[in-house]
Amino acid sequence: MYLELRHLRLLRAIHEQGGLARAADILNLTQSALSHQIKALEEQTGIELFLRRTKPLRLSAAGMRLLRTAEQVLPLIEAAEADFRAVEQGRAGRLHVAMECHHCYAWLLPVLDRFRRVWPEVDLDIRSSLSLKALPALQKGQVDLVISSDPEELAGITFQPLFDYAPTMVVPADHPLVAKGYAEPEDLRAETLITYPMERARLDVFSQFLDPAGVEPAHVRQVEQTSVALMLVASGRGVSVMPDWVLREHAGNPELATLPLGKGGTLRRLYAAMRQEDLAQPYMAYVLRLARTEPLRFLR
């Protein structure tokens, strides 16, 4: 037996409408065309699906069994069709985010919380950049947006600017460098540098400050949490480098002091990397607008 969705739909319509005339109207068919389809289906199955001697028209035992199949299958098909229409209209899609900046959770989570309230039909998720290579994953379609401060020339990938920030050193309040007023690479030669557990090339303190000067800190200690890193700094266990907007939240801590990297400071830009074709998605444009405005409260 070969069943098509139209067979299930006509069976359901006749059962729900209680007759051929009303079912034909629902299905946008003539009553004659509907009768022919029923006859063809019964000939194909070799089973009578309707009790024609009853009024209103009722399903036979075999027809009722097939109706149960229709009631299980058709809602799933209709839900899938609704999903496809939502995607086509730009109301639905997928937004899986990965970050190459460990500290970005502080402003990104409020952005995504606002986003999901406006775009509830978009499948939203955050993927850890520690478990995958974020930009290659973007190219492969495993994620849809990557937060990064290191734009690259990648086929099919565009880097949209979000906002600028200043990598800033945080030291104990009584550290000798406080009197100097800024930090130079040589100042870290004898220090324990506290960093996030990320690739060295993705850490501003190395890529923008120490590596160009050929300087290595005495020790490197990795910690997951910003609060833990700052506690260690306040305890005199080392120094760290974080974005200025992260450290502004802790500006009232008398045990900590902040210093620019270099006499004139260092400025970096954060980007949202995404596939070129996804720029046309309305929800992508929306999340970009949020990602450019929400962090301003941290930067003030």
From TrEMBL:
CDD domains: PBP2_MetR. Residues 3-60 form the HTH lysR-type domain. Keywords: Amino-acid biosynthesis, Cytoplasm, DNA-binding, Methionine biosynthesis, Transcription, Transcription regulation. InterPro entries: HTH-type_LysR_regulators, LysR_HTH_N, LysR_subst-bd, MetR_PBP2, WH-like_DNA-bd_sf, WH_DNA-bd_sf. It is found in: Cytoplasm. This is HTH-type transcriptional regulator MetR. Belongs to the LysR transcriptional regulatory family. The keyword DNA-binding applies.
